[in-house]
Amino acid sequence: MYTDPIADYLTRIRNAQMARHKVVEVPASNVKKAMTKILFDKGYILNYKFIDDEVQGKIKIALKYHPKTKRPAISEIARISKPGLRKYAGSDSLPRVLNGLGISIISTSKGLMTDKEARQQNIGGELLCYVY
User: Fold this and answer.
1) pLDDT tens digit string along 54-70?
2) Distances (CA, A) of 2 to 7, 8, 21, 28, 89
3) Contact (CB, 8 A) for 15 and 72
4) Dihedral in degrees, nearest 10, Cα atoms 39, 41, 43, 49
5) How far apart are CA 73 and CA 81, in angstroms?
6) Distance of alpha carbon 127 from alpha carbon 56, whole angstroms
7) What is the rounded distance in angstroms from the CA atom of residue 98 to the CA atom of residue 17?
8) Which long-range contacts (CB under 8 A, 24 or more apart) does 113-117 make?
């Protein structure tokens, strides 16, 4: 049993990309589903599928690689706010990842969104992870 399901989700994606897997399966939750949708919308993963066959369900994620160099689309994916030390930021102090080239996923009162969307809506929240 693991205590941080979001860190487990990010680690499974990171490990699958290092091993050059095409597909990775992770246990499903509403937060992980929202994170997967954000990663797909921003072009970091190729495709995803929600499987609701068990009690918890699973998410199948098709990983994205560059066609010629075979490098993964996600070069770094890091957990920021941890269960032992939560990190929060207001709308005026949201960090810019790689000067705007990457994204940070924020948990706000209006659901999960990227740092750019949170700045536009002028809301802050918990910094879940950085992706670039």
Assistant:
1) 788 999 999 999 999 99
2) 9, 8, 23, 14, 26
3) no
4) 60
5) 23
6) 25
7) 21
8) 113/38, 114/38, 114/42
Considering the chain, what is the average pLDDT of its residues? Answer: 95
What tokens were used for 56? 């918890």
Residue with token string 């609701």? 52
Q: Which amino acid is at 38?
A: I
Model pLDDT for residues 20-39, shown as the tens digit of each residue: 999 999 999 999 999 999 99
Tokens standing for residue 61: 């994620």
**How many Cα atoms are found within 13 Å in the side-chain-facing hemisphere of 7?**
10
**Backbone dihedral angles phi then psi of residue 48, each to the nearest 5 degrees:** -150, 160
Tokens of 81: 């706010």
pTM given for the model? 0.94
One-letter amino acid at 131 equals: V
Q: For residue range 108-128, what is the model confidence (pLDDT) as tens digits?
A: 999 999 999 999 999 999 999
